[in-house]
Design goal:
Blueprint: H1 7-29, E1 40-44, E2 47-52, E3 55-56, E4 59-63, H2 72-84, E5 89-95, H3 96-99, H4 109-120, E6 124-134, H5 143-146, E7 154-156, E8 162-166, H6 171-191, E9 197-204, H7 217-223, H8 229-237, H9 244-252, H10 261-265, H11 269-294, E10 299-304, H12 326-332, E11 338-342, H13 348-355, E12 363-364, H14 378-388, E13 393-394, H15 409-430, E14 433-437, E15 447-449, E16 452-457, E17 469-474, E18 479-485, E19 487-493, E20 501-512, E21 515-522, E22 530-531, E23 548-556
Parallel strand pairs: 4-5, 4-13, 5-6, 6-9, 9-10, 10-11, 12-13
Antiparallel strand pairs: 1-2, 2-3, 7-8, 14-17, 15-16, 16-19, 17-18, 18-23, 19-22, 20-21, 20-23
Helix pairs in contact: 6-11, 8-12, 11-12, 14-15
């Protein structure tokens, strides 16, 4: 059968084909992130990593001061300042009080502007949802929530006093927060077509300050009921890996399969916190699950960590995802991907180590307590986190504070980390990296990579404010990338058949478009694994921002 096409039909077909070609061409020439897969966390050989646009992504981060993102005008100059520090990701708050100032009236202006500005500055965003709780209290809830304590009840202390923290068991509180959070996720899904927003933090440092648990009638009634079977099942299945504050009271009280909270865990402040942690986790998980159903990107919660006094909850926010309660949170909030470590501890490494638990990766969204004059530790802690703990991300708090000026050492440190980021991510997954930091008990005195043992040495003449640090990546059987500052690194063979070792070559340089570009060959007085590669051990030769990248080759015989 012969088909005859009319001239009109032919013209229409040609127009259709031309349109398809133009569409394909436009797609190819446009922003490749526009159609990329959503950010996701993947596990490789036991190491969890964030993937953005289908590639491993290290969060070389910065968290804003709490109030900075409350104003588009205020943020105008901050974007440029942040970008100048070689940051790739900004932790930025969006608060419920401004987002829903009147019930069911949502203001999208801030989130729209922040996503647009971040994209223009080639920065990624981690949105911090300051909803029901921020730092153990409810100061960021809308006024219509704060002033209606009958509808949105507060937690009560043991003496009957009313707290500034809304209930974590009341359905009205949950549903109001949930509704706002879903609206936020809907908006992000609508306007963010380039994966600018890569993670969501739900709430901020939750828990009850000043008391072990909520003693309101509603909460006490729940406390006197049976522990959910879901939690008992999790505990019995994971008993050998639980944190001591969970496993020990459970075993001491008879390993019961059912009972009230005090029957299962005993009567103590610790039991109060376990109860609170379960309720916080279930509350937050409802937000995480609903948000992922709308826009499926990774979520995390952050912890005001347990410290101080006699380890009595309430000194820190009771029930938060601190290191003592990680198991309860993992049981109660399976839709939360990471339990993050806000790490202001003077024993930084120990605090970080406590969070690397039961496949929970290290993410440090806040560090470096400016208010305690901790103004120079960001660079060492970043290298140590990525190298030793295989961290997913690191961020000092208050990046827009004058502390982080244009000559701060974080600028050079972040430049170097960005240069090494693909290698770091690959080495983390292959267990071919380690990091170290002077003055931290959790830092290794020595460690093995391949057939060689490395020994950091901080015994340099330098200003007392300068602390040595670095990381080493194995890139072949006998080649390594070494980066950091204010230290020397010794080496020896780990092979008993070839117990001797020798340094064959040292190059200083950087990577350009994925290829190593040598700046100079190091030998003579500068020879050795020296950071920086200076000829003499004198104070004037060591600067805060003198952060080198070395490529070395070793020989064993």
């Amino acid at each position: 059968m012969k088909i005859i096409l009319s001239p009109i039909v032919i013209i229409l077909l040609l127009a259709l084909l031309t349109g398809c070609n133009n569409s394909t061409s436009s797609s190819k020439s446009g922003d490749p992130t526009a159609n990329a897969a959503l950010p996701v966390i993947k596990e490789t050989k036991g190491v969890k990593q964030l993937y953005v646009n289908n590639e491993p992504f290290l969060i070389i981060g910065s968290e804003l001061l709490n109030s900075s993102a409350s104003s588009i005008e205020h943020m105008k100059d901050i974007w440029r300042q942040i970008k100048s520090l070689n940051v790739n990701t900004v932790f930025l708050p969006v608060n419920w009080q401004q987002f829903e100032p009147k019930e069911d009236a949502f203001d999208y202006s801030l989130i729209d502007s922040h996503i647009k500005s971040a994209k223009e500055n080639n920065l990624k965003l981690v949105i911090l949802w300051f909803g029901s709780w921020k730092n153990g209290e409810s100061h960021y809830t809308p006024d219509w929530v704060k002033t209606d304590m009958k509808r949105f009840p507060r937690m009560l202390f043991k003496d009957g006093k009313i707290s500034t923290t809304i209930s974590n068991t009341n359905k009205n509180c949950l549903n109001a927060d949930l509704k706002a959070y879903k609206k936020l996720m809907e908006r992000i899904a609508e306007v963010d077509k380039h994966n600018t927003v890569i993670m969501m933090q739900i709430e901020n440092e939750v828990g009850l300050l000043g008391g072990t648990r909520d003693f309101s009638a509603e909460s006490t009634k729940l406390f006197e009921q049976q522990v959910p079977g879901e939690l008992i099942k999790y505990i019995t299945h994971n008993l050998t890996t639980l944190k001591p504050k969970i496993s020990e009271p459970y075993l001491k009280n008879g390993s019961k399969k059912q009972g009230t909270w005090e029957e299962i865990f005993g009567k103590s402040p610790n039991t109060d916190e376990i109860y609170m942690a379960w309720n916080y986790a279930k509350y937050v998980n409802k937000l995480a699950k609903a948000g992922k159903a709308i826009h499926n990107i990774p979520t995390f919660v952050n912890a005001w960590d347990a410290a101080g006094g006699n380890l009595i909850p309430g000194i820190w926010p009771s029930g938060g995802p601190n290191y003592l309660m990680l198991d309860i949170w993992q049981a109660g909030a399976p839709d939360i991907d990471v339990l993050a470590n806000d790490n202001y501890s003077p024993t930084f490494g120990l605090s970080a180590k406590n969070f690397v638990h039961n496949k929970n990766p290290l993410l440090v969204p806040e560090a470096c307590a400016i208010w305690m004059n901790d103004t120079l530790s960001a660079a060492p802690k970043a290298f140590f986190s990525f190298g030793h703990f295989k961290a997913m991300g690191f961020s000092p708090f208050g990046i827009d504070h004058p502390t982080y000026h244009s000559k701060h050492s974080i600028k050079k440190a972040y430049e170097v980390l960005a240069n090494l980021a693909p290698l770091i991510a690959k080495a983390q997954a292959e267990d071919k990296i380690n990091g170290f930091m002077e003055g931290d008990d959790a830092s290794p005195a020595s460690f093995q990579l391949g057939d060689f043992i490395f020994k950091p040495n901080y015994d340099l003449q330098k200003d007392s404010l300068i602390k040595g640090y670095g990381l080493i990546i194995q890139i072949s059987e006998d080649e390594f990338m070494v980066s950091g500052n204010a230290c020397h690194v010794g080496y020896e063979s780990a092979d008993s058949r070839q117990p001797n070792s020798q340094l064959l070559s040292v190059e200083e340089g950087k990577f350009v478009k994925g290829k190593w570009v040598k700046k100079r060959t190091i030998n003579g007085d500068e020879f050795g694994i020296k950071l920086p590669p200076n000829p003499y051990n004198i104070v004037s030769d060591v600067y805060l921002d003198d952060i080198s990248i070395l490529k070395i080759k070793l020989f064993k015989y």
